[in-house]
Amino acid sequence: MKTNKIVTIGDSRTGKTSILSRFMSNVFDPTHTTSVGIDWFSKTVFFTEDGQQRETKLFLWDTSGQERFKALTPSYVKDARVVLLVFDLNEPESLQQVVFWFQQAQKAQTNCTYILVGNKCDLERKCTAAEIDQVKIQCQSDKYYEVSAKDGTNIQTLFTDIGKELYKMNKQEEDNVQPLTIESKVDKPSRGFCC
User: Fold this and answer.
1) Does some domain include residue 185?
2) What is the predicted pLDDT for the residue at 144?
3) Which of 46, 89, 97, 187 is 20 to 30 A from residue 68's alpha carbon, by CA?
4) Which range of residues forms the domain containing residue 50?
5) What is the DSSP string of the chain?
6) Are β-strands 143-146 and 113-119 bridged in parallel, bridged antiparallel, or unpaired?
7) Per-residue model confidence as pLDDT tens digits over 129-155
8) Which of 14, 24, 3, 52 is closest to 158 using CA atoms?
9) How many Å apart are CA 110 and CA 74, to the nearest integer?
C-alpha cells in the first residue's frame, strides 16, 4: 500500500504552513515567517464510512513557495497521492501562479489527485469565481475548497474529505491485490551413491 503523502504547493505567503498548523494543532500564528525548504507532519483523521468508524493516517508535506525552491517541486511531489494547490483568495496573482505550480508538479509524473485550495476566505475576496473555474480546468482539479487558516473555516472538512478519499483508494487497491502463487518444483532424488 502506498503512503498517504499529501503535498502543499503554491506561492509564498498563501498560507500553506498556516493551513497545516490549523489542521495539526488548531493554532493560527499571525507572526509566522515564510517557510524555508520543506517540513512534514503526520496526523490520523477519523470519520464514518458505511456506518463504521474508520481512520486514515495522512503524511503532510509543507513546502516553501520561495523562488529559489520552485525547481525542487517535482522531487517534493514524487510519490504524492494528493497535491494541494494553495492560493490566496485576496491575491489574484497567486491564483494565476497555481498553473505554474501545477506544471512543475506534473514533471514528477506522479499519478495523484490535485485539489485547488483558496485560503483566507475570512477576508475580502479579489479572485472571481470565473478565474477560479478557469484555473481548476487548467490544473485538472475537480475539487475546490475555500478555507481560512485564521478562523479554521473548512480546514477539518478539507482533510477529512481527503482522508475518506484515500481510505477508499487504499481499500480498492487492497481488494485488487492478487494472491501470489509460487510453484515449487522439487527434483526427485537421484539413485546414485555418495561416498
Assistant:
1) no
2) 98
3) 89
4) 5-175
5) ----EEEEE--TTSSHHHHHHHHHHS---TTPPPP-SEEEEEEEEEEEETTEEEEEEEEEEEE--SGGGGGGHHHHHTT-SEEEEEEETT-HHHHHHHHHHHHHHHTT----EEEEEEE-TTS---S-HHHHHHHHHHTT--EEEE--TTT-TTHHHHHHHHHHHHHHHHHHHHHTPPPP-----PPPPP-----
6) parallel
7) 999 999 999 999 989 999 999 999 999
8) 24
9) 9
Q: What is the pLDDT of residues 84-130, one digit of tens each?
A: 999 999 999 999 999 999 999 999 877 899 999 999 999 999 999 99
CA nearest 23: which of 47, 4, 42?
42
113: left (phi over 0), alpha (psi -120 to 50) or beta: beta
Threshold 0.70, pTM exceeds: yes
**Cα gap 72→109, rounded to integer Å:** 14
Across the beta sheet with 38-49, the strand order is 38-49, 52-63, 5-9, 82-88, 113-119, 143-146
Q: Look up the CATH number of the domain holding residue 70.
A: 3.40.50.300
pLDDT at 3: 87
How many independent structural domains does the chain possess?
A: 1
Q: Is residue 184 part of a domain?
A: no
Is residue 129 in some structural domain?
yes
